[in-house]
Specification:
mainly alpha; single chain
Length: 135
Amino acid sequence: MNNGKLVKELGQLLLKARDLCSAIGGRYEDYIDRVLRIPRQAANLAVRMHRYNLDPKAGADNMRFLAGIPNEEKRLAAQNALLTGKSPDTVKISTRQKAEDDDPRLRLEKEKIRLERTIASLSKRLKEIEKELLN
């Protein structure tokens, strides 16, 4: 829980640093890289943890997972599941499954379009190769 609070507080401070950098005309990314020497991805993750107002009771690792869920409704559902005692692996699996359980017809239509594009591209390439072989 303490680690979660610290990461969330870091996110708040990084937002302030971003504002200060823009106020003085400095690059925030340079500040992250050269002064703080932390990976940009970690900095962005801490900022998201603060912006999403994640509950530190979930723990820093779980907060990292929750910050990666862009949909607010799904994120809150996952956070509630974690706080009620479900294991992180169970929550991760259920979160991924919901994304895959979209309308089967829509999923198949998308796959059909993707396959048609692939076939067209491969057919074009095949014709080019056959033409080169004739020459």
